[in-house]
């Protein structure tokens, strides 16, 4: 893998892993880093990095310390692990209903704050003080600005020369819950959750679930009344659309995202000079094809010879 800080290939970030009780030797763990370029762009892509092969015991304080050792404090903002991304996608099958302008008449910020509070209340109590990640997991780091991304990639490129690798977990004593026997002991204690607390979280979960199902049905019903690319509207028997399930809501959201991406691509030639240049190119191609067709017709006439009608 190339270590090109200016390119989009993976750069290798070596991290020194200190010895532990089960393995009394230092080791080097390689995390692969590149600019974040997801299939569906987001506003923060220019100031975020995509990380691959993160350590299994990764936490936000760990990576905050690593990036602080690379470029100093104040550059690192947050990190989203692969497990957190999947949970965020699975919890809301019909959030596109608000992106399409179908939000309630109340302020969108107030509605989102209330829904976020409902979703937090619907979560069961945590029974692990720290979550471990599977091997070769990924994460996305959000930095302060685009300049911070460039500084981090340049700092990673210099590590190969200086050999001064960041030390994993350095100066984090007391900031991160320990693993090992204390971790298992706390898990056994937290597994005995209060019955009333669990029941309250369960009721909140079903309230959120019913609200999302209702939003999915509204979204699907509205989309059924919108014309497709050919201008046709799907008509259902009886004039009423059946309630949408989660699959239909996901499919509707996917179509809306594709429609927005197509509209964005069509806006690339928005300026007049771009339109003029494109029309000139199209006219030049038409003239070229016309001249080629004329030459083909002339060649066919010469090959057949002069036409003589039968008497």
TrEMBL record:
GO terms for biological process: ribosomal small subunit assembly; rRNA processing. Residues 10-178 form the Rrp7 RRM-like N-terminal domain. Transmembrane segments: none annotated. Signal peptide: none annotated. InterPro entries: RRM_Rrp7, RRP7, RRP7_C. Residues 290-311 are annotated as: Disordered. One of its GO terms (cellular component) is CURI complex. Residues 190-310 form the Ribosomal RNA-processing protein 7 C-terminal domain. Pfam families: RRM_Rrp7, RRP7. Belongs to the RRP7 family. This is Predicted protein.
């Amino acid at each position: 893998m190339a270590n090109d800080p200016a390119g989009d290939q993976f750069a290798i970030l070596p991290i020194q892993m200190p010895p532990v009780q089960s393995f009394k030797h230092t080791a080097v763990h390689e995390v692969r880093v590149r600019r974040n370029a997801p299939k569906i762009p987001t506003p923060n892509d220019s100031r975020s990095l995509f990380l691959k092969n993160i350590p299994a015991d990764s936490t936000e304080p760990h990576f905050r310390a690593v990036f602080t050792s690379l470029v100093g404090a104040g550059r690192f903002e947050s990190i989203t692990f692969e497990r957190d991304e999947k949970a965020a996608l699975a919890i809301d099958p019909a959030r596109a209903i608000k992106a399409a302008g179908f939000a309630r008449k109340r302020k969108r910020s107030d509605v989102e704050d209330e829904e976020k509070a409902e979703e937090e209340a619907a979560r069961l109590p945590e029974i692990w003080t720290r979550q471990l990640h599977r091997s070769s997991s990924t994460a996305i780091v959000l930095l302060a600005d685009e300049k911070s991304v460039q500084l981090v990639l340049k700092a990673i490129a210099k590590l190969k020369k200086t050999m001064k690798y960041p030390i994993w977990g350095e100066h984090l004593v007391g900031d991160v819950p320990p693993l090992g026997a204390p971790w298992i002991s706390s898990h056994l204690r937290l597994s005995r959750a209060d019955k009333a607390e669990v029941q309250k979280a369960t009721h909140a979960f079903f309230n959120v679930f019913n609200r999302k199902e209702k939003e999915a049905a509204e979204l699907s019903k509205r989309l059924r009344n919108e014309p497709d690319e050919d201008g046709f509207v799907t008509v259902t028997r009886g004039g009423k659309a059946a309630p949408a399930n989660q699959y239909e809501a996901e499919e509707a959201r996917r179509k809306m995202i594709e429609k927005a991406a197509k509209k964005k691509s069509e806006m690339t030639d928005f300026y007049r000079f771009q339109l003029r240049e494109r029309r000139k190119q199209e006219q030049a191609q038409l003239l070229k094809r016309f001249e080629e067709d004329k030459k083909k017709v002339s060649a066919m006439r010469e090959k057949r010879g002069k036409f003589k009608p039968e008497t």
